[in-house]
Amino acid sequence: MLMAHPAVLKNLIEQYETLSVPQVAHDGTPEMQRRLDDLAYTLCVSTGTRDIGAALAVARRQLTDTAAHHSYEGALQAA
Q1: DSSP category for residue 20
Q2: Distance, CA of 67 to CA of 20 (rounded, Å)
Q3: 38 Rama class: left (phi>0) / alpha (psi -120 to 50) / beta
Q4: Is the CB of residue 48 less than 8 Å from the CB of residue 59?
Q5: 42 burial via Cβ count (<10 Å: 0-12, 13-18, 19+)
Q6: pTM for the full model?
Q7: Conformation bin of residue 28: beta by default, left when phi > 0, alpha when psi is -120 to 50
Q8: Residues 6+ apart with CB under 8 A from 49
Q9: Whether 35 contacts 62, CB under 8 Å
């Protein structure tokens, strides 16, 4: 499976979380709701999932795994 670049995933998560804050979502315009729907769809496609909860969990896990991998590579290069 193709994986989205970590920077893209991080950006998508941040945008989704910002727009899904209850106060923002409640007071949001139709355009904001469409953007939130688009972000949810993009996260699902990017993570190979079908619902936003699973998409966020997979995206966060991928970011954690990527960060751990880079830390490990950095430690190897320093040794």
Answers
A1: T
A2: 25
A3: alpha
A4: no
A5: middle
A6: 0.80
A7: beta
A8: 43, 55, 58
A9: no
How does pLDDT run across 51-74, given as a tens digit for each residue? 999 999 999 999 999 877 655 455
What are the residues whose beta carbons fall under 8 Å from the beta carbon of 71, sequence distance 6 or more? none
pLDDT digits (tens, 9 = 90+) for 19-62: 998 877 677 788 999 999 999 999 999 999 999 999 999 999 99
Structure tokens at 79: 């040794």
- Residue carrying structure tokens 């966020």: 56
